[in-house]
Amino acid sequence: MRRRAAAVAGVLLVVGAGAGWVAQRTVDAPDHVPGEAAPVPAESPALPFTTDEELTPDPPQPPLEPGVPLAETSFGTTPTRLVFPVPVGWQRLTNAPNEFRWKVPGHPQDTYVLRVEHVGSQRRTIAEHRAERIRSAKAQELEVDVLDDSGDGLTYTYVDDLGQRRHLVVRWLDLAGGPAAEAEVNVSARVRDAEGAADLSRRVAGGMRQE
Predict the structure, then answer these.
(1) pLDDT surpassing 60 at residue 59
(2) What band does 149 get if pLDDT is binned at 50, 70 and 90?
(3) Which residues pair with 91 in a beta bridge?
(4) What are the tens digits of pLDDT across the range 179-200?
(5) Which of 28, 80, 84, 211 is deepest in the core (most CB within 10 A)?
(6) Quick check: 67 pLDDT over 80?
């Protein structure tokens, strides 16, 4: 009888110890509801981004300065002939019958380039041109950042397919007093050229007329 009591006591001791161990594990474990997803730390950003260290270096030519000398030129035929000023000494490049570009001779085209286009056949208002340019840029380029979309213009930066950060200043001009714009002035530049690009765009647009 004494041996049986001792055996029972031993079993109870083991069970008690086991229950205490389980209780301790329950206290130490974090709260968790079965079936509830626990948060997992992200391993990388959800969206791609580019740091300045990852960009392709810009061409080393000095920045475009404000106040470059201008001289009048033109293209097209009356009554839609465009007359406007362009930088003295810049090289004229032909894109299409209704579009021309100018750049400093010897400079690569990824420094800064002035482009003028006759856009009257598109029959878009200035607001429509701007909205379409923003839509197109965001669909085709990386890291598009609109800096100014007021008045008749648009200024934005983006990273192109060569990994360079570009700065664009665009203006659309209503020269005939109608709802549609007739001309586009576009200065594509590096970020370091921003001040000169804004000045050149303003002066070319300000001196443009249609005759």
Answers:
(1) yes
(2) very high
(3) 103
(4) 899 999 999 999 999 999 999 9
(5) 84
(6) yes
- The DSSP result for the chain, as a single string, is -HHHHHHHHHHHHHHHHHHHHHHHHHHHSPP--TTPPPP---SS-SS----GGGSPPPP-SPPPPTT--EEEEEES-TTS-EEEEEETTPEEEEEETTEEEEE-TT--TTS-EEEEEE-GGG---HHHHHHHHHHHHHHHSEEEEEEE--TTEEEEEEE-TTS-EEEEEEEEE--SSSSS--EEEEEEEEGGGHHHHHHHHHHHHHT-EE-
Distance CA 153, CA 148 (A): 8
Question: Do 89 and 144 meet the contact criterion of CB atoms below 8 Å apart?
Answer: no
Beta bridge partners of 92: 102
Distance separating alpha carbons of residues 161 and 142, to the nearest angstrom: 8
| C-beta separation of 102 from 91 below 8 A | yes
Q: How many CB atoms lie within 10 A of CB 2?
A: 6
State how far the Cα of 167 lies from the Cα of 112, in Å rounded to an integer.
Answer: 9
